[in-house]
Amino acid sequence: MHPSLRAKIESISERQEELGEMICDPEVVSDKARFLGLSREHAELTPVALEFAKFIELERQREEARELLEDPDMREVAQSELRELDESIAASGAELLRLLTPKDPNDDKNVILEIRAGAGGDEAGLFVADLWRMYGRFAERRGWSIDQVEFSENSAGGFKEISGRVQGRGVYAQLKFERGVHRVQRVPATESQGRIHTSTATVAVMPEAEEVDIQLDPADLEFEFMRSSGAGGQHVNTTDSAVRVTHKPTGLAVRCDQEKSQVKNRELAVQRLRSKMLEAEIERADAERAASRREQIGTGERSEKIRTYNYPQDRITDHRVSLTRHNLPGFMDGDIEDVLAALRSEDEAARMAELAS
């Protein structure tokens, strides 16, 4: 283990021990706010301290085994024990790295999921509908809910774009690697000669930002009010309920016409504007971190084709982790967990390598 990393872990262990004594102090216990804060910090540091204690004990046992190498009668036993201890020490060191790897502060947030048709005309719009259903089925499997759905249909029964709010436990942690360009290769239903077409759709996964995440100066916001363009009958044509909000310093804009109430649409538009701004911050941080890696799984920028769905070959390929699997119908029915797990593991490994270096 690198000396600087060991020094950091030793400091954490000392702090954990100090906190353990502090939360037993009657004076601290009587101060509820302070007690809760210190208890929370103690709980966060305890896994690292316990693993480091295990690591130190394994090192002690290894030193004892090395001493036995001097005894000819015990050498064979000591060599076998040393091999096992070396493996255990390596595993414990890896676990310490994992525990120290910074967690994404947005992982527990709900998300705003947006899918837009790219190249491919009507077929791209049908692919958008397929992806939306795929994520919807995956959300059902996880016990999540999707609401605040807005969409713009195309003439072929697909969508030019569709968006919604996904709520549940660890939604962003699961879906954040889906952002980017998805590519489909298949024969469209309207293709009479059986030719394979390639179409694309862009997926955006934005953590739902709260006011504490992104603070907006009202003076920087410009609101426009217009008639809704969605379904809704006569009410839509007679009420300026749709709202478009623009953040003047950045030019980011969001339009919302989901609700009949202009006030509600204004609130939702500002909420989504915050989420877009938080997403931009995350993408900048991702790009900076990726630039410092020798090897990277991808920056997550939307210009990347992250995955290909090949229908004739019944194949899904995720280009970031060079992972290929079959059973495309099952995948499109929401059975995507194994690919998401591979992406999470790759990202965690990259973060750990960055920490170790």
How does this model look, in words?
An 8-stranded mixed β-sheet has the order 2-3-1-5-4-9-10-11. A 3-stranded antiparallel β-sheet has the order 6-7-8, covered by helices on one side. 49% of the residues lie in helices and 20% in strands. The longest helix is centred in the first third of the chain and has 37 residues, at 32-68. The relative contact order is 0.10. It contains 10 helices and 11 strands. It has helices spanning 3-22, 26-30, 32-68, 75-100, 122-142, 171-175, 234-238, 262-291, 328-332, 337-356, and strands at residues 111-117, 145-153, 159-167, 180-186, 197-207, 221-226, 242-247, 253-256, 305-310, 315-318, 323-326. With 357 residues, the chain is α+β, with helices and mostly antiparallel strands. Strand 10 (315-318) and strand 11 (323-326) form a beta hairpin. The model is unreliable at 231-238 and 292-303 (pLDDT under 50). The chain has 2 domains: 3-100; 111-210 and 300-353, Alpha-Beta Plaits, CATH 3.30.70.1660.
